[in-house]
Amino acid sequence: MRFLALFCIYLLMLSSEMTGGKENDCSKMLACQPWDKNKACSRNELMDLRFGVQNHASGEMAAFGLCPVVDQVQAFEFTGIGSLLGGLLSDNYATFFVYGQGPMYQPTEDYSNSVLYAKEAPECGQDRLAVVDFLLLKISMSSGVYAYESNVTFPHDTGFVPTCSWLGGCFHSSADICIGRDGEKNCARCVPKEMLDSVRTTVWVSYYGSDRYGAEFTSGAHNPQGA
Fold first, then answer.
1. CA distance 11 to 209
2. Where is the secretion signal located (predicted)?
3. 3-state secondary structure of 66
4. Which of 25, 95, 141, 148 lies most in the core, judged by the most C-beta atoms within 10 Å?
5. Parent domain of 103
């Protein structure tokens, strides 16, 4: 599997500030990691949050590393994925995943808890790709860590919440189409292949449950979809 260089990230933190004393917690491996019970998270602490976009056929991957404040209202905008998407053929696709949200027995090595991110779609016509432009990520914890029903299941009540209805309508834009598996469809925009470098995808993050001290998370109340 080949990783592409880290791309430019635009970070919008709607109601939080990073103080100088915390800026390097992720690089120093001090940030919390909810998949690791020894690094449980607390409110207003920095968290290790990593995303990836993977080309299914080639295995190429674009990796994004963030260091958000737990339980703050946040949206992240990703750019610079065009070179990875440019090689997608009609029988290929790209997926979007969150590092550390694999099954309990290998949370950082299994990326199957992902959603469809880009593919050719009949609704887009020729020489265009359908690319997801808005995702809702739900992060649920119990005492600051993910909860699992068994050793082989994904984190409970955690992952991407569909932004499209079962009938195929996008909740956020009537101009968007919907792509993905039934029950897991997300809003996508048809992008001309020569304009893939301009692709931007926003990920809204909401927290639910409790931190390592038992304090309840509140940012979920601001989820734009109410999920």
1. 24
2. 1-20
3. strand
4. 141
5. 9-13+49-222
Give φ, ψ of 221 to 5 degrees. -65, -20
pLDDT of residue 10: 36
pLDDT tens per residue across span 38-51 = 999 999 999 999 99
Report d(CA 142, CA 159) in Å as an integer: 15
Each residue's pLDDT tens digit, 132-164: 999 999 999 999 999 999 999 999 999 999 999
Distance CA 227, CA 219 (A): 12
Question: Which pLDDT belongs to residue 83?
Answer: 83
Say what the pLDDT of residue 154 is: 96
Please indicate, yes or no, if residue 19 is contained in any of the structural domains: no
Q: Give dist(CA 210, CA 142) in Å, integer.
A: 5
The Cα–Cα gap between 167 and 136 comes to: 18
| C-alpha–C-alpha distance, residues 169 and 99, integer Å | 28
Say if 3 falls within a structural domain: no
Asked if the model's pLDDT at residue 1 lies above 80, the reply is: no
Residue 149 lies inside a defined structural domain of this protein: yes
Domain count for the chain:
1
Q: Which two tokens stand for residue 153?
A: 């299941």
